[in-house]
Amino acid sequence: SVDCSFSRGVCDWKQDADDDFDWNPADRDRGDGYYMAVPAFVGHKKDMGRLKLLLADLKPKSSYCLIFSYRLAGERVGKLRVFLTNKKNTPVWEQNKGKDERWRTGKIDIFQGAETTNSVTFESERGKGKTGEIGVDNVILISGLCRED
User: How many distinct structural domains can be found in the chain?
Assistant: First the structure.
């Protein structure tokens, strides 16, 4: 497995230059490192911020499981979507509201066919809300398909 978490991960993360705002590091409550977040008040409604994970060494014709922690905290905070390179316009995962402030786990299967996925994009869309944030943390890539817990 490959640890792509932000504090100590080995992965290559890039801010998208063509979006409306950047994701920023935010300190974890426990004080052990940080996660990436977009506060609810950044930008205007429907503005987008994209954080891209570059994947250089995935083997063709194999499968992977991308596991990550996410949080949508606050009233009408917006949407969090995940895109894979080879399916640019259709999100493979989307969440638009949190039931509470808790962190949850997202899982996405990545199949390497003839076209390989060389990046995963986390996209935050600004909602109507003025408080809260969208956060992503603990991004890990594991060989093989995701298992149901």
Answer: 1
Residue 148 in domain: no
Q: Are 143 and 83 in contact (CB under 8 A)?
A: no
pTM of the model: 0.91
With respect to residue 149, please indicate whether it lies within any of the assigned structural domains: no
**CA 145 from chain center: how many Å?**
18
Which residues, including other chains, have CB under 8 Å from residue 71's CB and lie 6 or more apart? 98, 101, 102, 103, 104, 133, 134, 135, 137
List the beta strands (DSSP E) in 74-145: 78-84, 93-95, 104-111, 119-126, 133-143
Average pLDDT over residues 98-103: 82
- Domain membership of residue 122 (yes or no) is yes
Helix (H) or strand (E) holding 12: strand 12-15
Among 82, 85, 86, which Cα is nearest to 123's?
A: 82
Residue 79 main-chain phi, psi, to 5 deg: -130, 150
> What does the pLDDT read at residue 86?
63
User: Which of 41-50, 66-75, 83-92 shows the lowest mean pLDDT across its residues?
Assistant: 83-92
